[in-house]
Amino acid sequence: MDFRGRVFLAPLTKGGTLPFRRLCLAHGGEVTMGEMAYAYQVVKRSKSELALLRKHDEETCFGAQIAASRIDDAVRAGNAAAERGAKWVDLNCGCPIHDIVKRRMGATLLRKPHKLARLVEGMVEGIEVPVTVKIRLGWSEDEYNASEVARVCEEAGARAVGIHGRTREQRYTRAADWDEIGKVACERSIPVIGNGDLLTWFETHDRWQQSGVASVMIGRGALIKPWIFREIAEKQAWEPDARERLGVYFDFAGKMKEHFRDDEKGKERAMRFLPWHLGFFCRYRPLSGERWEAASREHPLIQTRMPDEASELSLLERLLRDPRKELHERLADVLWSSTDLDEAEAGAAALAGAMPPEAGDAGEVATAHG
Ligand SMILES: Cc1cc2nc3c(=O)[nH]c(=O)nc-3n(C[C@H](O)[C@H](O)[C@H](O)COP(=O)(O)O)c2cc1C
Questions:
Q1: Domain contains 1
Q2: Which residues on neighbouring strands pair with residue 88, listed in sequence order?
Q3: Separation of 230 CA from ligand 1 center, angstroms?
Q4: Ligand 1 atom, smallest distance to 176 CA
Q5: Which of 55, 120, 233, 305 sits between 20 and 30 A of 295, alpha carbons compared?
Q6: Is residue 2 included in any domain, yes or no?
């Protein structure tokens, strides 16, 4: 596995299911990562946790991510992932949520570089595939320590370090700090994978070049438009109209049917995910380089509120941009029950008639999650 010159799909709990990863591959993605799995649950052979390590045959470059605090658990879970085809195992060292932090996993490890060093060393020794670590810039703005954490990881034998350019406490409130990511990339000889706020091909190439990172990683940008991978590869935007986007979402529903099965139980499982995804898809806006490139250097577009030129939008376009949860549930149902794209479009049109946009919806719409 070469960690240089690649565009990674970020590990995304709830979002990075096998059907979604296949959707990214269908649109130019190459390197996929699984949702974070608790190592101690994998060791207990929890079915739901083992399912997170499963990859599709199409995923020829798949990495599994685990959350761990004990070497023994991490090694056993890492090898379980390798047996299932993971090309590498990533240690989560950035997850901010309370349940993880309380169990001394995720972002807590940023505050314990010595413990982290021992954990990574143990993993490198015991796991049969390369080990990487995904970190943040630090716990808080007063505790920026990515330089030290990345050094410790390299010395412990990690093959690459991914850096999400924010602290644990910032969550998504600030723009990712690519200067700081670049500083760490300069200091290290292992590849650094830069991550944070990449929504367009021009922002991706700009941050990639400016920072000097070896590779980049995309999270919410892929959840909003899974075709971002092709855009980055081709250095040009694909601006699908509403029907083309509906086609992508219909295809996604088909991949969910293959994975969860096309029956009532499968539908029930898929409906935990499909409406949630529509909550990201609805944030899509065409962002041409001519109009937005200069502005994006000042402030990342994923954090920017875009005016919606509502009067010029077709009914289907307005429907796909609608942020209402209830509508996402009903649209997910349409996508699931349709047998082809024409039927899905007719169902969506009927839905648009039944649920016209509420007053105020046509105003400013955020492209960002959080
Ligand atoms: C819905 C969601 C789920 C996430 N789950 C994980 C996860 O399981 N493991 C992880 O390391 N990071 C996780 N992250 C963080 C992303 O991998 C990524 O570091 C972060 O979103 C910044 O990248 P972006 O600006 O491209 O979204 C998650 C982010 C989102 C939005």
A1: no
A2: 63
A3: 20
A4: 25
A5: 233
A6: no
Residues 145, 220, single domain; the answer is yes
Q: What is the pLDDT along the chain (370 residues), one digit of tens a residue?
A: 899 999 999 999 999 999 999 999 999 999 999 999 999 999 999 999 999 999 999 999 999 999 999 999 999 999 999 999 999 999 999 999 999 999 999 999 999 999 999 999 999 999 999 999 999 999 999 999 999 999 999 999 999 999 999 999 887 888 999 999 999 999 999 999 999 999 999 999 999 999 999 999 999 999 999 999 999 999 999 999 999 999 999 999 999 999 999 999 999 999 999 999 999 999 999 999 999 999 999 999 998 877 666 568 999 999 999 999 999 999 999 999 999 999 999 999 999 999 987 755 443 334 333 2
Residues 278, 189, single domain; the answer is no
Asked whether residue 354 is assigned to any structural domain, the reply reads yes
Verify whether ligand 1 is closer than 6 Å to residue 367 (CB atom).
no
Beta strands in the chain (DSSP E): 7-9, 32-33, 37-38, 62-67, 88-93, 131-138, 160-167, 192-195, 215-218, 305-307, 364-366
> SS3 for 112?
coil
Q: Indicate whether 179 belongs to any domain.
A: yes
Is 100 close to ligand 1, i.e. is its CB under 6 Å away? no
Nearest residue by C-alpha to atom 12 in ligand 1: 11
Distance between Cα 11 and ligand 1 center (Å): 6
Instruction: State yes or no: is 282 an active-site residue.
Output: no
- Provide the pairing of β-strand 364-366 with 215-218: unpaired
Same domain, 141 and 183: yes
Residues 255 and 223 in one domain: no
In ligand 1, which atom is closest to the CA atom of 36?
8
Q: Is the CB of 34 under 6 A from ligand 1?
A: no
Question: Which of 24, 93, 95, 153 does the annotation list as catalytic?
Answer: 95
Ligand 1 centroid distance, CA of 186 (Å): 24
Q: What is the CATH number of the domain that holds 106?
A: 3.20.20.70
How many CB atoms within 10 Å of residue 125? Answer: 12
Helix (H) or strand (E) holding 336, with range, is helix 325-337
Residue 346 lies in domain? 242-366
CA of 277 relative to ligand 1 center, distance in Å: 14
pTM summary value: 0.96
